[in-house]
Amino acid sequence: MGSRARFASLLSASFLLLLLHSAEPLGLRQKTPVAGGELLGVAGRYLTREERWMNQRLDHFSPTDHRQFKQRYFEFLDYHGAAATGPVFLRICGESSCDGIPNDYLAVLAKKFGAAVVTPEHRYYGKSSPFQSLSTENLGFLSSKQALFDLAVFRQYYQETLNSRHNRSSGFENPWFVFGVSYAGALSAWFRLKFPHLTCGSLASSGVVLAVYNFTDFDKQVGESAGPECKAALQETTRLVDEQLQSDSHSVKALFGAQTLKNDGDFLFLLADAAATTFQYGNPDVVCSPLTNAKKNGKDLVETYAQFVRDYYIKKLETTVSSYDQEYLKETTPDDSSSRLWWFQVCSEVAYFQVAPKNDSVRSAKVNTRYNLDLCKNVYGEGVYPDVFMTNLYYGGTSIAASKIVFTNGSQDPWRHASKQKSSKDMPSYLIKCSNCGHGTDLRGCPQLPFRIKGDSSNCTSPEAVDTVRKQITKHIDLWLSQCHEPTRAW
């Protein structure tokens, strides 16, 4: 999940979640890459973009509500073989429009294991919305719990589809393995937890399995990833912006191209996200080089940072300023629905409130708990509140009691503190260490702009660190597939 709370799939993808205007991923407010431009305009970016559809149940928890909606999905069968008896890799698409199956490192794994790759779109996002109006009442069926049942139903539907295509008995079972990045990575882990009989294992890449009310570790990691010099420049810039907001709010917002943001908190969240995204997706020099140079040469830090925000975050990453505007988030038929949808999941289930720590913060202290709670109330009304205690009680948080899940994280990714970073029995966890290893590095490579075909790791500051973890992932997939490769399964 950019750092703006939509994980995305730069969070479905999740940025750079499918890449998404967020996936990838969970700034929850997570920033995910948007369509167009350098983000998606690369030859070979997708394995397929051919749409397929199935009927999905709206409410999996009501025995009397039989309403359905159309759920979009994609399939890629080039490596599966004529007999189609090999594994099926279920790639979960997260908190954004799912426009195809990306040609990242999962394609390499699929070829190695002779696997089919299928990707269902998350309910409500993209073209898989049950309702035209995204009113708070209509969002009542948007949750991770409903999404997990969607995945289970899709898994059964697609297995039956394969059996029908190849004239096999309904009892035949391909071995399945589930993949996800960011919020989709959490869903991947939770799917293995809740439906262990439906998958041989899961990869939770940057999987944010821990719901966090006050996520101060996010900002702390931004400072750590920035390093002392860049961190000091970011902190001074934040202080100067806070001061200028008091004296001439309109002028400082206009300097950043964000004069439409009437709420100071929305504006300051935009500025915090812009910096966090560079570390999250492996491009630290984009913000640190100009800021540290400006500080050394006595240049205006606010103007320097504003140029970075305008040229990189808004123009190059195609971030829409309106996605930070609470008045825009209140719209029930917006052009970009992913922001309103992901914020609803944040406000009703997982929080991930990226608030400023009490001391040594990089972001403005005005980005606090009150700001987030006021946003939830303002956008969705009374009664929408993230009960993170119940979410973690239901899934287990980082104490998730499952098996055969691989957790991976990038050392510079602020989101890793909401993931499981310590290995436990049957659940290995790997940290990819390098200066540009961020969100979903194991599948995407680094840095993540422009898109890395097949997740090419050659531009990582430590390709060997990425490749070592990829070998471990392959080893676990191979072992777990062999342990559950049964021609039939009765249950």
From TrEMBL:
**Family matches, as Pfam families:** Peptidase_S28 (PF05577)
Which species expresses this protein natively? Answer: Lolium multiflorum
An example Gene Ontology CC term for this record? vacuole
Record protein name field: Serine protease EDA2
Q: InterPro entries recorded for this chain?
A: AB_hydrolase_fold (IPR029058), Peptidase_S28 (IPR008758)
Give the similarity note. Answer: Belongs to the peptidase S28 family.
Alphabetically ordered keywords of this record: Glycoprotein, Hydrolase, Protease, Signal
| SUPFAM superfamilies referenced in this protein's UniProt entry, alphabetically | alpha/beta-Hydrolases
Q: Name one GO biological process term.
A: proteolysis
UniProt GO MF annotations? dipeptidyl-peptidase activity; serine-type exopeptidase activity
Span of the signal peptide: 1-25
